[in-house]
Amino acid sequence: MTESKTFNRVSTAILTVMVTLTLLPILLIIIASFTKETALLQNGYSFLPKEWSLDAYYYIIKQGSVILRAYGVSVLVTVVGTVGSVLITTTLAYPMARQSFPYRNALSFFVFFTMLFSGGIVPSYIMWTNFFHIKNTIWALIVPNYLVSAFNVILVKNFYSNNIPGSLIEAAQLDGATEMQIFRKLVFPMARPVVATISLFTGLCYWNDWTNGLYYVDNQKLYSIQLLLMKIMNNIEALKANANLMGAGAVSLPGTSVRMAIAFIGILPILIVYPFVQKYLVEGVVIGAVKG
User: Fold this and answer.
1) Which helix or strand (DSSP H or E) is residue 62 part of?
2) In DSSP terms, which residues pair with 35 in a beta bridge?
3) What is the rounded CA–CA span in Å between residue 243 and residue 237?
4) Which string of b and e fits 180-191 if b means at least 16 CB within 10 Å?
5) I need a labelling partner for 184 at 20 to 30 A (CA). Which of 7, 57, 114, 175 fits?
6) pLDDT per residue over 230-242, tens digit each?
7) Rounded to two decimals, what is the model's pTM?
């Protein structure tokens, strides 16, 4: 009993230190975003800055309507992409987990193969633009790269195999349930932990993505928040690099603090959503990662 208490105390202390070390960079980003640009350049990053300023957020607020539209695009892409990915992933993993499905091994091979090999960026770009014609459409931000993940499919497949007894499915079949009814009313509700896990993984990928927009989107109305903020940051650097031509005002642009404000704005929605799905995350990953 004493050893158990000691282990719990030591584990708690170690985890507390690790969590603190994880949170300190985020706190430093937030503080730096409220620090005056000249103080950052002269004194570097500090948890107790000498001068506070809201210049970075004033600069971002000036881009308010554009940023709000970009936030709307990101929210739409994240929601639609995550829902679509979960539906495709869970339905694809279902026959792979069924022992009675005659082509389950071949299907598993094709899914696993995509984890090891890919065509590359150039062939993918040609395929999506020349054959599927998704350039400058909202689907360019949803379909490529993240809609189906082989890792998530295998994670869900292992969860089905390890946690849903075949006898339960057989009982449903004896009661006259179809495969779709079994999946919708029995399998999917029981897979809530792994569904929450892949939803978080996929949602993070969609929210943080800017490469799809960089490759496939030229229309500014379709800019996601990450892509827009990257463009803003590049514009600031361009102005600062041409300070002699733009005048003294360009020098005072809060470049470093804007970077920190941009980073904070980018991670804020994730910080809000994560606590609601965290309780399912560990269970879904641990159970789904066990070989089926």
Assistant:
1) helix 55-62
2) 52
3) 10
4) eebbeebbbeeb
5) 114
6) 777 777 666 666 6
7) 0.78
